[in-house]
Write a structure and sequence with these properties.
By secondary structure, the protein is mainly α. Helix content is 44%, strand content 4%. The protein has six helices and two strands, in the order E-E-H-H-H-H-H-H. It has a two-stranded antiparallel ribbon with strand order 1-2. It is globular and about 45 Å long. The termini are far apart.
Length: 145
């Protein structure tokens, strides 16, 4: 589980993220090679990756039509169109707040166990190399030209 502290969240509420087996494998691999307290250290010692890192990667790949926020949108579209997970589970995974004050007052849980299953399904989907019926999947490692 990855816990994002309240001070880093827009909604002012701590957010727990269930980590899939694939995510845990990345963390384990990075633990063996990292050289700071950051899982993904930046170019300068003791600094995290810049907020611009993903955007610059996309630019170097000549993928200007893809945005960093588009990755969140892709997850949300996949959850809605390709799974049977309830809407509220996908919304909770994105740490979206419940706009209806009455509903928010009664929903006190964070759907963690259901989100754990959702994130495992997302990891499985992202790890697929067979694109039959999955639309166009673009490898981040691929280069144009």
């Amino acid at each position: 589980m990855w816990t994002i502290p309240v001070e880093r969240m827009k909604a002012g509420k701590e957010h727990r993220v269930p980590l899939s087996g694939a995510a845990l494998a990345v963390l384990k691999q990075m633990h063996g090679i990292r050289h700071s307290d950051y899982v993904f250290p930046g170019g300068r010692d003791g600094r995290p990756l810049s907020e611009m890192t993903l955007l610059m990667l996309l630019r170097r790949m000549e993928r200007g039509e893809i945005t960093a926020h588009g990755f969140r949108s892709t997850f949300r579209d996949w959850a809605a169109e390709r799974t049977n997970f309830p809407r509220e589970v996908a919304e909770a995974a994105l740490a979206h707040t419940i706009p209806d004050a009455v509903e928010a007052a009664y929903r006190r849980g964070d759907l963690f166990e259901k989100r754990k299953k959702l994130m495992a399904a997302w990891a499985d989907y992202c790890g697929k190399t067979d694109t039959e019926g999955a639309g166009k999947i673009v490898s981040l490692a691929a280069r144009k030209g």
